[in-house]
Amino acid sequence: MTHQMIDAMRRAAAALLLGAVAATLPLTASAQDRTPMDPRLHMPGQLTVGTGDPVYPPWMLNNDPAGGEGFENGLVYALAGEMGFDRDQVVWVGQTFDQAIAPGAKPYDFAIQQISVTEARSQIVSFSQVYYQPRKAVIALPGTEAGTATSFEDLRALRWGAVIGTTDNDYLVNILGIEDAAIYNEQVDVFQALQAGQIDATLSSLPTALYVTAVQVPDAAIVALLPADENDNGHGLLFEFGNPLVPWVDEALSAIIERGVVDDLVSTYLVADPDLPIINE
Question: pTM score, two decimals?
Answer without folding.
Answer: 0.70
